[in-house]
Specification:
single chain, 107 residues, mainly alpha, 5 helices, elongated
């Protein structure tokens, strides 16, 4: 149940942020949705993925300061429902964009 709530809140927050950006800069909602989706998917993956570069950098700094080689175990990706919500938002925005601009893509 908690995962479904996190997923829904993520999609709602992305929709609200998209609406705010499109109304502040007087842009079309659909035109803003794909770049926002890509940016949010990238941030969500980099902060919640199993191969987080920020954690690896911290491990390397600790290794450099102490001289102790820490065992590195390749962790499985622990992607969160924030990532899945961002990905669902991006895919929905992509499908919606193709639907609205179908005449441009078809003919």
């Amino acid at each position: 149940m908690k995962q479904a709530i996190i997923f829904t809140i993520t999609v709602l927050v992305l929709g609200i942020v998209n609406w705010l950006i499109s109304s502040l800069f007087n842009l079309n909602f659909i035109d803003v949705s794909i770049p926002l989706g890509v940016v949010c998917v990238g941030f969500a993956h980099s902060f919640t993925g199993g191969t987080n570069p920020y954690v690896r950098q911290s491990d390397m700094q600790t290794r450099g300061e102490t001289g102790i080689r820490m065992p590195f175990t390749n962790k499985a990706a622990r992607t969160s429902f924030v990532f899945f919500g961002s990905l669902a938002y991006f895919l929905f925005a992509l499908i919606l964009t193709f639907f609205f601009y179908r005449e441009y893509f078809i003919g």
